[in-house]
């Protein structure tokens, strides 16, 4: 009888233990899957890891999206009425509009094309809106205008050269004022629309737009507070867009990463990066390699910013894997050479403020 009772007790204890183990497995497996879904271990930060994306003008980002974000409903907002899920194939671009079409007319002409998948149209709208946002910094006050005119008058050049410079200055002043007047036709909502249009282009695989959306180009803190839907869009898409641009080898992704981690919390991207990407030493070391190879400025490095030997080894592995043979690095070098030649030929420090649409051509 005692042996039977002891046997029953052992079997009961065994059943309890098995039940507890089964419960633990049931709880742990979804938790691990959720962590991997939201914050996968970045392959890019493992030395010797193989790239998951090929390099080309447009990248497929389905794998990154599936691993890094839930399939949440798209958030509608001012600008595009709705944003499609991604990745989607790019549509053929329609005819390009002239450079200085008034921005309100440009919105009217290109918005439907952008929503239909025309990458160039979406990128062009974003670039034009960004010009309007930055233009106030390019408008000379009356005092600065007088100073510029006096400087030309005192220049030790021929009378013809002095007249040419004065005409160039007057032309630039009039041009920037005219663009500023055109920008006043945009509503506050339209002036916040650049990230939405970069996202539309990015969702079609446009790598430069991915990098710009991830870096919140065209949006500030006030915009995010005034437009909760824009904030929700950024939170939903910033990390996968950054990751896709990084693995495609786009230099802006690296510079955005370094800037985010050096921002003392003021960068939106810093809040979107998962913990495994909060590695400022690696970001700084990689940004130096990318800047030197692409022609981009390195940026200021404070004395207390220490980069360890381990950071440099990891950065070197990342550079070789994603950036050393990147077509985007080559294009950035070409662009920097073009800008350097244009600056060398310019005789005046007050140019026309044109929209930066070069990246929309790729």
Note down, in words, how this protein is organized.
Helix content is 62%, strand content 0%. With 362 residues, it is an all-alpha fold. Helix 4 (119-134) packs antiparallel against helix 8 (194-203), helix 9 packs across helix 11 and helix 11 crosses helix 12. The longest helix has 37 residues, at 2-38.
Task: Walk me through the topology.
Layout: H1 2-38, H2 62-68, H3 103-115, H4 119-134, H5 142-154, H6 159-183, H7 188-191, H8 194-203, H9 207-214, H10 221-226, H11 228-247, H12 251-261, H13 268-272, H14 280-294, H15 309-323, H16 327-345
Helix pairs in contact: 3-4, 4-8, 5-6, 8-9, 8-11, 9-11, 11-12, 12-14, 14-15
Helical content stands at 55-70%
- The global form is globular
- Average residue pLDDT: 76
**Multimer state:** single chain
Radius of gyration: 26 Å
Q: Spans of 5+ residues with little confidence (pLDDT < 50)?
A: 1-9, 16-85
Largest sheet: none
* Series of secondary-structure elements, N-terminal to C-terminal: HHHHHHHHHHHHHHHH
Strand % is under 5%
SS summary, helix count:
16
Which structural category fits the helices and strands?
mainly alpha
* Overall number of strands: 0
The N- to C-terminal Cα distance equals 85 Å
Q: Which structural traits does this protein have?
A:
single chain, disordered N terminus, 0% strand, 362 residues, mainly alpha
């Amino acid at each position: 009888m005692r042996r039977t009772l002891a046997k029953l007790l052992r079997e009961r204890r065994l059943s309890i233990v098995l039940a507890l183990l089964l419960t633990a497995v049931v709880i742990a497996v979804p938790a691990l899957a959720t962590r991997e879904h939201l914050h996968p271990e970045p392959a890019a930060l493992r030395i010797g890891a193989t790239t998951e994306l090929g390099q080309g003008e447009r990248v497929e980002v389905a794998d990154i999206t599936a691993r890094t974000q839930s399939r949440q409903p798209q958030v509608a907002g001012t600008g595009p009425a709705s944003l499609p899920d991604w990745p989607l194939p790019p549509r053929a671009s329609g005819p390009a509009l002239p450079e200085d079409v008034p921005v309100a007319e440009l919105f009217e002409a290109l918005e439907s094309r952008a929503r239909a998948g025309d990458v160039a149209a979406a990128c062009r709208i974003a670039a034009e809106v960004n010009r309007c946002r930055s233009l106030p910094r390019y408008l000379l006050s009356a005092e600065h205008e007088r100073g510029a005119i006096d400087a030309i008058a005192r220049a030790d050049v021929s009378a013809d050269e002095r007249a040419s410079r004065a005409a160039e200055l007057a032309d630039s002043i009039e041009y920037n004022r005219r663009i500023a007047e055109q920008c006043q036709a945009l509503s506050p909502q339209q002036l916040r629309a650049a990230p939405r249009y970069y996202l539309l282009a990015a969702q079609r695989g446009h790598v430069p737009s991915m990098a710009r959306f991830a870096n919140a180009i065209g949006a500030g803190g006030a915009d995010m507070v005034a437009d909760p839907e824009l904030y929700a869009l950024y939170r939903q898409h910033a990390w996968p867009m950054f990751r896709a641009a990084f693995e495609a080898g786009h230099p802006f992704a690296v510079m955005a990463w370094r800037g985010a981690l050096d921002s003392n919390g003021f960068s939106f991207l810093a809040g979107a990066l998962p913990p495994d990407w909060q590695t400022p030493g690696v970001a700084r070391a990689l940004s130096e390699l990318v800047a030197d190879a692409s022609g981009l400025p390195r940026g200021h490095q404070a004395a207390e910013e220490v980069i360890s030997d381990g950071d440099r080894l990891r950065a070197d592995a990342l550079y070789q894997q994603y950036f050393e043979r990147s077509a985007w690095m080559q294009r950035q070098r070409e662009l920097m050479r073009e800008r350097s030649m244009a600056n060398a030929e310019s005789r005046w420090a007050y140019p026309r403020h044109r929209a930066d649409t070069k990246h929309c051509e790729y």
